[in-house]
Amino acid sequence: MGFAKPGDLPKTHAASLNASRKGVQAARVWNQIPLTACSLTRTGRSAGFLLLASSNRQNQKNTLVLALFTLTLFSGCNPRTPSGPASSIAATRETVDDAGRRVAIPTQIERVISLAPNLTEIVYAVGAGDRLVGRTSYCDYPPDARKAEEIGDTVHPNIERIIALRPQLVLVSTASQLEAFTHQLEGHHIAVFVTDPRNLEGVFSSIERIGEILNLKMQAAQLVEQLRARTSSVESAVSSRPKVRVFYQLYAEPLYTAGHEAFATDLVQRAGGASVTADVPGAWPKYSAEAALAARPEAIILPTGGASGDANSTVAPPLRRSPAAISGRVYKINDDHLSRPGPRAVDGLEEMAKALHPEAFKE
Hints:
By secondary structure, this protein is an alpha/beta fold. Among the domains are: about 85-195, Rossmann fold (3-Layer(aba) Sandwich); about 240-360, 3-Layer(aba) Sandwich (Rossmann fold). The chain has twelve helices and twelve strands. It has helices at about 10-15, 35-75, 115-125, 160-165, 180-185, 200-215, 215-240, 265-270, 290-295, 325, 335-340, 345-355; strands at about 90-95, 100-105, 110-115, 130-135, 150, 170, 190-195, 245-250, 255, 275, 300-305, 330-335. The radius of gyration is 26 Å and the shape is globular. The relative contact order is 0.12.
């Protein structure tokens, strides 16, 4: 997985990552539908019976036919037992998400909730921002995303609020987020789709999948084409340069870094670097002071200034005597561009490559 568990990271930083979701309990909420449809059903049925009772004296046969027609016309409008193609659960298509789950997705989706900042950014990037009805407190980009209802944070979403918003689709960033509430949402005919990009190629795939699900396949394809072109330009510029030994400092005290499964490790490699912790198992492992001293990186990346504010803006004590710190090769890069596997990850890639190999981008 590309994200650490809440217990693995300091509380302040773990909350900003897409951590595991466990022990969330939800109250049952009546799944509301538009009142006009329900009123029409009740009015239609009552009118049919009244017509039959008042017209028996005049023309019982004709009235009976009319009453049966009236009942048939409105019988499909029932909030508890939806039926017919107009139902939000009738027209679906099956797909397989990144967790290997078969998911029935509505063919037309107009109401979406995102449970991760990177997924919110993807929804907007493919042109479906107006369909976002719910998002987490960490979903702050683009600024218009704040117009959607807040349903809690990434770790503790308000399931009751999610159901009340009546989404057709909930986008989830990791399979571990599914444990507590998938059955509750599916019980309300809400599709849950997992997209879990672990590298830049996975980001491109996520954009294409979400675009396809939202019937914006062409827009998604155009966006991916642009992002691939920018990525190729960076990789071409640094391909002939010697690799720079990089330490990616996720958090200073205690010291956390990017391991083998981290999304950031892929960015470092593409930017012309070689992560000194690339072989460490896991995504965001805690790193010892002794190991940090022995790593002797030539450059240190400090993801800071985005959602984390000023946190992680200074080099960790064990790294202050490293070649990177002594030579002043410490680079602060917007953490939202490095920690969110979405469209702006290519911005992070470009910023990192220019920091590690400034000479390759002078032209």
